[in-house]
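sry for the spam today, last one i promise. struct tokens for design, 678 residues
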């Protein structure tokens, strides 16, 4: 059920009205450019990563692109003919953090006009007309906008945008430096206020919280948070100063002005390393309270930013990678569980997986050349999206189930949040994994360079129709690894960069080598020989899963089908619900040892507590075979039964069997597993 008091509280009144159905969302005013396409030569990679990429593009450029709205044009810089990007399902506004992260991750590259409008949608003016990043309830996170704005300039080369962005950046930094709340603590040389990501008190240990979270579910009402200093927030201030200096330099501002920002950045980097680095853990600490007490906890975004922004030196970076703790489904927000939470009831901002954090961590891993670790994090997010009909807000880090996490509301109540669907920054996290990680796109003010990371087992891959300024690029990666063996543009060998003045259609071919040996999925088949290198399988099937038993939660699902654990008796880590509406479907890749055509038997374990036999359509490789029935099992959804469909035609080595609710079907069942027998 959608709640009417959103956890992320920027634009609080508008969010409340929209969540409760008072405000309508307009359609985009103009269509986005035709998006890129991602094509893997290996079928399993295409099914896993190619499908997730297409879903992420749909999320960003269609589902979450809304029309121009004058309420957000407080800067006076929006183009009424261009839309903006909202935060996602349940969050109908752009919001500072979301707008910034989404532009940085993907929007500036994929649709520069849309990104620019979205960035200006979170900027307003003060009483004398000076631009500033909006002064809302999350004022501590304003400065992430500066990094997004500099990145937008690097992608587009738009100097008019840069001039206005510099005005907004300088005024915003001045405001934050002199603020009495979430301002600068001269004693420590650090900025105070909540961590970049954790706007809920569930993201903080006690202290500054207490065992019952009795003051507020938000973070800033807690005095210890408001006066505390947090790793990620200070790293973003460091990046903001670096990028303000970059802006000033590009605009030809006075040398003293540039040096001023550079000096503030250097001082802040020194303070971060002095106050947060913990040699005993080999990582940066999460928090420093005003009384000087430190919290030796792990913050996912904080570790990622330390690597991305170069705050950590090379030895520290190696230590962070070696000592960072991940959950089975990815990098958690904060870690470990606070005493008031547990694996069974993880805190909303504690030991739980937000895809946004996964994306930043994957960016950081790619930047360190950690190819297999990057591949593992990217595969996790692709699976989470594929298993759950798209990109959700939060997942249980142990099971991967869609889960909004827990939060206290006082002495006796612990509230279980929902996890919202169609989250834009979850989708753009995956897009960035592909663009920045896999293809290694790096933007400078002179051009676009490449440092790809193609893991063993993924196969060759091509990114088509990628627009960069005046050029339309087709980029093909061959081999595996991070070392570029050859780089060709339109068949001619060149350095691994293209100039910003390039125009027209061009094909880039990059041959890679040097992929590290490994077995990411632990199935005993080396990645280089594993056709399903990120999903455990068997030697007999070249590392692909045995179709003799496929857990339903590992299927690729669309139309609202997602993982769940709210009934008992299922096998594996979860079961599937959501096969309850037209268009809902679950697809299972049947990796066979033969390519010969055959007619096989498919057995499905399911739950049906309806009063009649329910029907679904069984398809193979997208072609309907017949309508199939699922008789009632029990009056309880905790009871499971099986049914077998004989004489199912299969061809090729990797046929895809799909159960869907098509027109004429009654659906409304849960799925537990599927088995194939010859």
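last one done:
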């Amino acid at each position: 059920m959608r709640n009417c008091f959103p956890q992320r509280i920027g634009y609080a009144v508008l969010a409340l009205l929209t969540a409760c159905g008072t405000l309508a969302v307009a359609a985009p005013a103009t269509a986005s450019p035709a998006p890129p396409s991602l094509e893997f030569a290996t079928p399993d990679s295409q099914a896993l990563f190619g499908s997730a990429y297409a879903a992420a593009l749909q999320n960003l450029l269609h589902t979450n692109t809304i029309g121009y709205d004058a309420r957000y044009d407080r800067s006076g810089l929006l183009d009424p003919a261009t839309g903006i990007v909202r935060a996602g399902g349940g969050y109908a506004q752009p919001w500072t953090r979301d707008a910034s992260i989404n532009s940085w991750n993907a929007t500036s590259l994929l649709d520069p006009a849309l990104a620019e409008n979205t960035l200006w949608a979170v900027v307003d003016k003060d009483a004398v007309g000076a631009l500033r990043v909006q002064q809302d309830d999350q004022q501590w996170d304003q400065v992430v906008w500066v990094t997004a704005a500099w990145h937008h300039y690097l992608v587009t080369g738009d100097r008019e945008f840069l001039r206005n962005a510099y005005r907004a950046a300088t005024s915003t930094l001045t405001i934050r430096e002199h603020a009495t709340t979430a301002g600068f603590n001269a004693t420590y040389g650090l900025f105070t206020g909540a961590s970049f990501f954790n706007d809920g008190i569930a993201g903080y240990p006690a202290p500054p919280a207490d065992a019952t979270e009795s003051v507020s579910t938000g973070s800033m009402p807690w005095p210890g948070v408001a006066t505390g200093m947090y790793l990620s927030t200070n790293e973003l201030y460091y990046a903001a100063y670096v990028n303000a200096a970059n802006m000033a330099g590009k605009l030809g501002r006075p040398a003293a002005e540039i040096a001023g920002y550079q000096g503030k950045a250097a001082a802040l980097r020194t303070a971060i390393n002095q106050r947060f680095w913990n040699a005993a853990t080999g990582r940066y600490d999460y928090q420093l309270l005003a009384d000087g007490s430190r919290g030796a906890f792990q913050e996912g975004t904080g570790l990622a930013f330390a690597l991305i922004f170069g705050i950590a030196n090379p030895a520290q970076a190696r230590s962070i990678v070696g000592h960072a703790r991940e959950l089975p489904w990815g990098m958690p927000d904060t870690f470990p569980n606070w005493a008031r939470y547990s694996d069974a009831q993880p805190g909303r901002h504690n030991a739980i997986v937000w895809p946004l954090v996964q994306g930043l961590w994957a960016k950081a891993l790619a930047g360190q050349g950690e190819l297999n670790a990057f591949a593992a994090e990217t595969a996790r997010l692709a699976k989470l999206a594929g298993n759950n009909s798209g990109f959700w807000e939060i997942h249980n880090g142990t099971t991967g189930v869609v889960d909004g996490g827990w939060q206290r509301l006082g002495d006796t109540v612990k509230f279980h949040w929902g996890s919202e669907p169609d989250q834009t920054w979850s989708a753009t996290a995956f897009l960035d994994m592909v663009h920045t990680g896999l293809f290694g796109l790096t933007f400078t003010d002179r051009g676009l360079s490449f440092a790809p990371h193609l893991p063993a087992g993924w196969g060759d891959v091509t990114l088509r129709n990628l627009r960069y300024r005046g050029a339309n690029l087709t980029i093909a990666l061959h081999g595996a690894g991070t070392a570029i063996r050859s780089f060709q543009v339109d068949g001619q060998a060149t350095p691994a960069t293209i100039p910003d003045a390039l125009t027209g259609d061009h094909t880039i071919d990059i041959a890679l080598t040097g992929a590290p040996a490994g077995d990411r999925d632990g199935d005993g088949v080396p990645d280089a020989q594993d056709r399903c290198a990120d999903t455990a399988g068997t030697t007999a099937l070249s590392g692909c899963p045995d179709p003799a038993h496929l857990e339903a939660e590992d299927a690729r699902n669309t139309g609202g089908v997602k993982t769940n654990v709210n009934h008992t008796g299922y096998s594996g880590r979860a079961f599937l619900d959501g096969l309850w509406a037209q268009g809902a479907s679950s697809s299972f890749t049947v990796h066979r040892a033969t390519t010969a055509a055959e007619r096989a038997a498919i057995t499905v374990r399911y739950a049906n507590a309806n009063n009649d036999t329910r029907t679904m359509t069984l398809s193979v490789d997208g072609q309907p075979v017949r309508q199939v029935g699922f008789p009632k099992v029990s009056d309880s959804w905790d009871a499971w039964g099986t049914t077998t469909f004989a004489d199912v035609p299969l061809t090729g080595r990797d046929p895809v069997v799909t159960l869907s609710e098509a027109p004429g079907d009654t659906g409304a069942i849960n799925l537990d597993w599927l088995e194939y027998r010859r």
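The first strand starts at residue 37 and ends at 40. ok im logging off now
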